UniProtKB/TrEMBL annotation, chain A:
It comes from the Bacteria. It comes from Actinomadura rudentiformis. This is Hydrogenase maturation nickel metallochaperone HypA.
Automatic annotation (TrEMBL), chain B:
It comes from the Bacteria. CDD domains: arch_bact_SO_family_Moco. It holds the Pfam family Oxidored_molyb. Coiled coil: none annotated. Residues 1-22 are annotated as: Disordered. Residues 35-179 form the Oxidoreductase molybdopterin-binding domain. This is Sulfite oxidase-like oxidoreductase.
Length: 94, 199
């Protein structure tokens, strides 16, 4: 196996086009092996033809992102859950 | 100074008439990858064809080498907009590999070592349009370009020419592959610029 990938920080810019929060700072759970860790620790292949982020534990695909000139396709099938750090919602509580 | 119009030159080598819309020419052979490069020894390699009825046909590397090969020279077109003209390959035509396979399937799902898949109509693999290629430019196919063997389907965008090919699944229903389920076009004809799902 060759180490021809980047770390998950490479996802920060492309995902910032879609999410209002920094998803690379989130913690994700691999749907395949259950490994939980920061998105920044994923192994990212690409960027062309698309970004493919793989679990550092089992190498299964956790995220795919394809960007055309006028659309983005985001596949998170391989991510069971993301814990995304958010601003305190205290002020919005009933 | 004599001047010539394009019309008197015939088919220009490297000319625009061989370049699909939106493509540029390159002399390099860029490597694009969606995962780690599998290191498959020929002694471990096998190619399977599974029909829609579940019949499985297997061929070892040794059996592949014993089949008649061809040396196609073809232009290849990557969806990321590079094209490369007159690439030279050696491989076995899918016509030969599917000769003894009884099927009424209309679609194929190509499987690779490493988990990559891509789909195409079965007819796009037949009639001299596709090969299992194991040599490129006179040398063994390097793993980063899909060695020991890759599919070669040059009339479609190059993501259909699956690297590290390990088999075909013949299907009655179309089943989109790795990039086809993530925004890329289901067919991928470079001359119709079918890059993305909605092209």
């Amino acid at each position: 196996m060759s180490a021809d990938y980047l770390d998950g920080n490479a996802l920060a810019g492309p995902l910032a086009e879609i999410f209002t929060t920094d998803v690379s700072a989130a913690v994700g759970r691999c749907a395949s092996c259950g490994l939980t860790g920061p998105v920044a620790s994923l192994r990212v292949y690409g960027p062309a033809p698309g970004l493919v982020a793989r679990c550092p534990g089992c190498n299964e695909v956790m995220l795919r992102l394809v960007r055309s000139p006028d659309a983005a396709w985001l596949d998170l099938c391989g991510t069971a859950c993301l814990r995304i750090p958010m601003e305190s919602a205290e002020g919005n509580s009933p | 100074m004599a001047t010539f119009t394009r019309g008197f030159h015939g088919k220009r080598r490297g000319g625009d008439d061989r370049l699909p819309p939106g493509q540029y020419l390159t002399d390099d052979f860029p490597v694009l990858s969606a995962g780690p490069t599998p290191q498959i020894l020929p002694s471990e390699w096998e190619f399977t064809v599974e029909t829609e009825t579940g019949q499985v046909h297997r061929r070892s590397w040794q059996e592949l080498m014993a089949l008649p090969s061809e040396t196609p020279t073809v232009d290849i077109h990557c969806v990321t907009t590079w094209s490369k003209l007159d690439t030279t390959w050696q491989g076995v035509s899918l016509d030969v590999l599917l000769e003894d396979v009884e099927t009424a399937a209309e679609y194929a799902l190509v499987h690779s070592y490493g988990g990559y898949t891509t789909n195409l109509p079965l007819e796009d693999l037949l009639d001299g349009k596709a090969w299992i290629a194991y040599r490129y430019d006179g040398e063994e196919l390097h793993p980063q370009h899909g060695g020991p063997a890759r599919l070669l389907v040059p009339h479609l965008y190059f993501w259909k020419s699956a690297k590290w090919v390990r088999g075909l699944q013949l299907l009655n229903e179309d089943s989109p592959g790795f990039w086809e389920t993530a925004g890329y076009n289901n067919y991928g004809d470079p001359w119709r610029e079918q890059r993305y799902a909605d092209d």
